[in-house]
# Entry
Amino acid sequence: MRRYLRRSLWQIGIVVLGIATINFFLLHLAPGDAAEVMAGESGAATAEYMAALRQQFGIDQPLYLQFLRYVGHLLTLDLGYSFREGMPVAELMRQRLPATLLLMGSSTALAVSLGCVLGFMAARRAGKIADTVISTLALLFYATPVFWVGVMLVMVFSVALDWLPIGGMTSIEAGYRGWALAGDVARHLVLPAVTLGLFYLAIYTRLVRASMLEVYHLDFVRTARAKGVRPWRIATRHVLRNALLPVVTTLGVQLSSILGGAVLVETVFSWPGLGRLAFEALFHRDLALLLGILFCSSLVVVFVNLAVDLIYTLLDPRIELS
Amino acid sequence: MSLLDVKNLSISFATPRGRLAAVRDLSFSLKAGETLALVGESGCGKSLTALALLGLLEPPAVMEGNGIFLEGRNLLTLDEPTLRSLRGSRIAMIFQEPMTALNPVLTVGEQIMEVITEHEGGGRRAARARAVALMEKVRIPDAERRFAEYPHRLSGGLRQRVMIAMALACSPAVLIADEPTTALDVTIQAQILDLIGTLKRENGTAVLFITHDLGLVGQHADRVMVMYAGRVVEERTAADLFADPLHPYTRGLIAARPGLGGSGRRERLMEIPGTVPGLGAMPVGCAFSPRCAFADDLCRSTVPTSIDQAGGRIACHHSEGIHDREPAIRRIGNS
Ligand SMILES: Nc1ncnc2c1ncn2[C@@H]1O[C@H](COP(=O)(O)OP(=O)(O)OP(=O)(O)O)[C@@H](O)[C@H]1O
Ligand SMILES: [Mg+2]
# Structure
């Protein structure tokens, strides 16, 4: 176990550095830089002004020097400085992190828990009405584009019914505190979390259903029946437990790709999280900030995958770390 | 009194083109402490019979009959919760494949405990202690430690012992062993069958021993039912059956059995010509008639009924005169 972890950590280090390198050069392939954007915005795009900006940002130097400096900083865990925002990248991200974690956490929790429950119910009533309803809805949400779901939810619940806020994370003008603030954030959270989670909710529902139906046909379920185990216990203890492995795999995939979804959803709902920060950074050619966010999300991806491996060994004793 | 009484049990599959009969008109009874072997080729309906006795047939399979009486109660008339409470406690089963018959994500100890807690309730502590005792009883060495092992860490023989411990946990009246040793190698096979025999004698359990291996039957069964294409063709005591088989199919099986002749040389194997008919292609008369050396028009047109004969039951139009016709089969066998 310890040897496995040590080896994985080495691999993770190499992979993360590799990703950072690729990110760096890919982003520099794109035309335009932060100086151009800023100068364009201020309307004073003289050559001297732009040169001065470039020198200040350190982007006048040859690319390989910029790269070496970037890697050097990374190795000392320094994510760099955003000249655009006038703040260290790490500090900017730290401010936005809680909002994103809240959004990702609640949408993932919603997708996994509700998906498992619905999939479980559908599998236990396979072929009956409840199953048909659940499976049809799951297919529907599976096939619907996320942004469209987001827009529709806003149209219905914010615009037409006026039950939930259109966007943002708090009602700033109300100045809530304590529990009132928590409730206010929760109300703001509903639509973006549902939008972000709905697609995966559909995936988990379908996955758990299919996987349970498959397990129901295995020999050990017949053994459990022959032992006189109650149907509910067969479903939970024997079937569901064995059907959870693919769920963990998908959870890994979901968490690894969630930043992409968060960019979209946070932008649509003006949720002050990392996704929107990344979107703005891209827009402003704020490469230091963008690289910082990408670096951290690559860390998340590799650690999520490590966690998935560890959870596998907990769920299935046949799998051993080697 | 017999512990298990099966009366005219039939099992069929509901298909779009009508019913396909897989097991027909099966009747037998089992007494305490007795081992009855159910022997037949692959696909003749042995496992279906076993599942039917537990009430575990799944659609499209359906069963009907005049009753399956377990300790006097007719299983065909009981509702599912009552059936469930009998399964594993009054009638238990050991399956063929110890590799896949155990849940891979639960320890073997938990799986044995489960039978006890489901049927008798009581504390986990007590159930655990009983599970360990059961593991010792089926001679799993180092039971206390093995309790916490997962199935994949145990050998096939040990896994089958776990299955036996599970099946015997609540001291069932009837134990069904469906090819319990087919997946094991020969030495382990003998140990497992001896174990089942010992436990049966200790507890007075009635055993239905399902096998396709006639070679195991002689030592391990008191009585034998030979099944062909879903019908019992001959039922005798094991001693009688081997001394003087009366149904042509049984005679063929025994002749085809590999073994050592008196001279130490391998006896000549006699194959039964032809193959078992499929469920959809059953002959009109006796199902064995297309392969039978004695078959005549009567056999091909009329299904023979089971008649009491020679201390058993035989379903053959010509079993009475079989000895006079013996040279005929020899001639065919040698040609
Ligand atoms: N779902 C099904 N639909 C149609 N036929 C089936 C179905 N399940 C089983 N059968 C048929 O029922 C017959 C009896 O099967 P069964 O499993 O009882 O055989 P068996 O005697 O136990 O054979 P084996 O020695 O291979 O275990 C077989 O011919 C099989 O093809
Ligand atoms: Mg079978």
